[in-house]
Write a structure and sequence with these properties.
13 helices; D-Maltodextrin-Binding Protein, domain 2; 9 strands; 44% helix; 4-stranded antiparallel β-sheet; 286 residues; alpha+beta
């Protein structure tokens, strides 16, 4: 979200020769990838989980670069209820998640980390738009949410809510994805524009948060908090490939994709544009 909107706001795409370049918003990465498949858009940002599920279902894409990552974007939030003081107390409770997103992956990883089987809780699928509202209204006792819904739920629940922290359990990556066939030169121009935006976000965070909050219609404090949760750095690392392959195994186990599905993720990696922009930031072996 941050790099794309900042690059558009500052006119960096136009500076790189991409005339008429427009940045539009989607509900989430899965929605963006569906638009990409329909031909409504040419590039998008999507999480690693969204990429895993889309490609396992047969969608053809090029993964161009990681633009940001966060160990804090996904949060496990619970109502402060009698008898619920730790994750172990979640057994028998209603636990919400957003199917087919990083929320889904994170909730299962969270429960597994604490020795809780998904069969020991009541798993409740939340609406991708209303998830925070459903948690706040206590349609569930706890939920795994990501930005921007997680911070809003935490803020509105206040003392009635609690966050169960698990540092480093899952690092979500946000990645630049393109439809096949886009020229290397155009992808390189997009990356250069986003690199300029990266320098703004890292070098002038307060000014960037103010500009982005106005563009996106969000409170400035919420925008600052969201930016603080992410590390903005363009790259293409071997770790992304490992994560996609691991998530594919999870998706098959969870019956989100056919058990027979198989994807060669290395073949989806469009390495050359990122190598031309910042070769030292490419650790992917291809």
């Amino acid at each position: 979200m941050g790099l794309g909107h900042m690059a558009a706001l500052q006119g960096y795409f136009a500076q790189q020769g991409l005339k008429g370049f427009e940045v539009v918003s989607c509900v989430n990465g899965g929605d963006c990838l569906e638009r990409l498949e329909r031909g409504d858009i040419d590039l998008t940002l999507a999480s690693d989980i969204a990429i895993t599920l889309a490609t396992q279902k047969g969608r053809l894409i090029d993964v161009v670069a990681t633009v940001s990552q966060s160990r804090r974007s996904n949060q496990f939030i619970a109502h402060r209820l009698p008898g619920v003081a730790s994750p172990a107390d979640l057994r028998g409770r209603r636990v919400g998640y957003i199917k087919g997103t990083s929320s889904h992956y994170f909730v299962e990883a969270f429960l597994s980390f604490h020795g809780i089987s998904v069969r020991e809780v009541e798993m409740v699928e939340l609406d991708q738009v209303r998830a925070a509202d459903q948690l706040i209204a206590r349609e569930v006792d706890a939920a795994a949410l990501f930005q921007p819904q997680a911070p809003r739920a935490i803020r509105e629940l206040g003392e009635a809510g609690q966050v169960f922290e698990v540092p480093g359990l899952y690092t979500v990556t946000i990645n630049l994805v393109a439809r096949p066939g886009i020229a290397d030169a155009d992808l390189r121009a997009v990356l250069l524009a986003m690199e300029q935006a990266e320098q703004d976000l890292l070098g002038k965070p307060a000014k960037s948060a103010q500009a982005l909050s106005q563009r996106l219609g969000l409170p400035e404090a919420a925008m600052r908090a969201a930016m603080a949760d992410f590390d903005f750095r363009l790259g293409l690392e071997q770790g992304l490939l490992i994560a996609l392959e691991s998530q594919a195994r999870w998706a098959r186990r969870s019956a989100l994709v056919p058990s027979s599905s198989s994807v060669n993720y290395l073949s989806l990696m469009r390495v050359e544009p990122m190598r031309q922009v910042a070769p030292r930031r490419v650790t992917l072996i291809k």
